[in-house]
Amino acid sequence: MNKEVKDQPKTVSELQEWFEANGFDYYKTRFFIGMDFKEPKAFGIYKDGSGDFVVYKNKANGERAVRYQGPDEEHAVNEIWQRFNQEIVNQKKHWQEKQGRSQNSHSDLYIPKEKDLSKNAKEMRNLFFIIFVTFLAGLIIPITAMDKIPSIIRMPVLIGIPFLAPILASYAYYLHINGKTLQEDMDSGFKPLMKGVLIFLAVIFVINGIGVFAGRKNGYYSKDGELYYRAGSDWYVYNNDKDYWQPEYIVPSELKSSNWSDYKNTGSIEYSYRSFESTSYYNDWKSDDSDSGWTSNDWDSGYTDWNSDW
């Protein structure tokens, strides 16, 4: 993986430096920074004689499609930057597919089927199923019988049963798969049981953590005429003057609240805006470790769509 920079280049010279620092060759990628390249199959940005910045794409047939022409250098750089990052996603996708085909071409490749799963894997799958079912049952049954539970013990029952039921069920399953009796396990000091309890508590902690943060949804937020997007732990704001998204490090406290009600509701925004999903920020956020190993040397401009206008 090539080096990444946190801040997006804002000038042509900064973009040239970024390309050089990260090993992206103009002729290999077909992105020509600071050049009015005339040949087919090329993207580029340059400053013309009148002082305007021109962002262009030369299609396969040699026709030029101008994406932007004007005096705003930052806007022009953002246009080519976003398109470049979209192409990186496209390159990685085809590279991954190529890697998959290469692996599948080996005659000795063995793909395990369901029945070939290891015994331990099956047991873990069954254990998690038991935990889920008994936790759900322990949650629903006391609620349905709420009026029959004395008020003095109602809260302990509602809290305790959903946790106690999976522990006991998991322990019974442990005895079953190991062919042990309760007495035999008592003689061993209940060590496996203690491990099971700790594992279960860890699972509950994770589930609880998911529940706590589930309310903090990713997506669009609006506040006082500003449009934001939450992508994991990062926030972005739409720059209406520049017509692009940018990182935002100080956001209204209401946007971080789990009960913020404006999630995916951009009706209060009166101006038109670009989709955050079309940006390189979104692509970076959604990308995973499956592209590890890809470098600029793997770039193949044959994967690029050279017939479209952009």
Written description of the protein model:
By secondary structure, this protein is α+β, with helices and mostly antiparallel strands. The chain is 44% helix and 14% strand. It contains 8 helices and 8 strands, in the order ααββββαααααββββα. The strands form 2 sheets. Strands 1-2-3-4 form a 4-stranded mixed β-sheet. A hairpin with a 5-residue loop joins strand 2 (42-47) and strand 3. Helix 5 crosses helix 7. 15% of the residues are buried.
Overview in brief:
With 310 residues, the protein is of the alpha+beta class. 44% of the residues lie in helices and 14% in strands. It has 3 domains: 89 residues, no CATH class; 98 residues, no CATH class; 64 residues, no CATH class.
Q: Strand tally, please? A: 8
Q: What is the topology, as strand order, of the major beta sheet?
A: 1-2-3-4
Oligomeric state of the chains present here: single chain
What is the average per-residue confidence, as pLDDT, rounded to a whole number?
75
Distance from first to last alpha carbon? 26 Å
Residue windows where pLDDT falls under 50 for at least 5 positions: 1-6, 106-117, 207-215
Structural class: alpha+beta
The arrangement of helices and strands along the chain is HHEEEEHHHHHEEEEH
CA-based shape: elongated
How many domain units? 3
The whole-angstrom Rg is: 28 Å
Largest sheet: 4 strands, mixed
> Beta-strand percentage?
5-15%
Helices, by number, come to: 8
- Helical residue percent band: 40-55%
